[in-house]
Design goal:
single chain; 291 residues; mainly alpha; two-stranded antiparallel sheet; 2% strand
């Protein structure tokens, strides 16, 4: 929730900067509509794609389908995973769209030329879409300038109404999806929280250990080439404490990489691919020692 909140705040700040420095309605028939929709849709599409690319589950899914052909994924699991990726990526574009609608400028620019002039009392004749398209700008003909405020206010009302409807719809959708997730989850609240804590701890420890392992393996290879390696005090202590002889085989990397959904082995929870791999290694060693 904190991460999503930071994304939303960053999007709001970007929207403000864009509105102040970049948005400029062309005030021309046909161009207004395209420019207004582009100002709302293209940045939203861009940040959506960035969100998909930055999501680790995206590349886990790609790796899973490339190496295992998604054989271990059921349709329900695949749908849930795609929903998770899309849901996280939708935070920024949804925020951008809502803020654009609440501000109203792109909507006013896009639809000003489509305002029905007959709905305005005493609107002078002879002024068509070309005149109406200039209402978002300052250079409005003097004889219709008195109608500018009413038209802009009407369009902003429609824009903000759409924005608030989107917010309400999103809130209801998120609530229903969270209810559905809780109802379909095989875990209770406490175990769900424990699983989340385990994944966070495992990822943090794995990243820190991988960083040290990569550094020590690199130090070993550099020393093999030059005959010595330049290390600081902390790194020399790590070399003495940890022995790294060679790189981890690719087969083991493949076993711990990819999409993983909650599983159990004889009632014992397996919280990740790394957990499953470690359990298999322990069971294999026990079988070997037993023989």
């Amino acid at each position: 929730m904190i991460f999503n909140g930071l994304i939303a705040l960053g999007t709001v700040a970007s929207q403000e900067v864009y509105s102040v420095f970049a948005f400029s309605c062309p005030c021309s028939p046909e161009r207004n509509y395209l420019y207004g929709l582009t100002a709302i849709g293209v940045p939203a599409l861009a940040v959506f794609l960035i969100g998909v690319m930055l999501n680790r589950n995206t590349w886990k899914l790609v790796f899973e389908c490339r190496t295992r052909g998604c054989r271990s994924l059921s349709s329900t699991a695949g749908f849930a995973l795609l929903g998770s990726i899309v849901g996280r990526a939708m935070v920024a574009p949804f925020t951008w769209t809502v803020i654009s609608l609440l501000r109203g400028e792109p909507y006013v620019c896009a639809l000003s030329e489509f305002v029905d002039s007959t709905s305005l009392d005493s609107f002078p004749g002879g002024h068509g879409a070309g005149t109406l398209a200039r209402f978002p700008c300052k250079d409005v003909p003097a004889e219709v300038e008195s109608f500018k405020e009413e038209i802009v206010r009407r369009l902003k009302y429609e824009s903000q109404l759409l924005g608030w409807l989107l917010v309400g719809l999103a809130a209801i959708t998120i609530f229903l999806l969270m209810c559905l997730k809780r109802c379909c989850s095989p875990l209770g609240n406490h175990q769900e929280a424990y699983w989340s804590q385990y994944r966070s701890s495992e990822n943090d420890l794995f990243q820190r250990t991988a960083e040290v392992h990569a550094k020590l393996l690199a130090a070993t290879n550099v020393k093999q080439f030059f005959g010595f390696v330049a290390l600081d005090k902390e790194e020399r202590e790590q070399v003495k404490e940890f022995a790294v002889e060679d790189a981890t085989p690719s087969l083991q990397w493949n076993k711990i990489t990819g999409v993983y959904l909650y599983r159990e082995n004889k009632g014992v929870p397996l919280y990740s691919r790394l957990h499953k791999w470690a359990k298999d290694m322990i069971d294999a060693n026990l079988d070997t020692n037993g023989k």
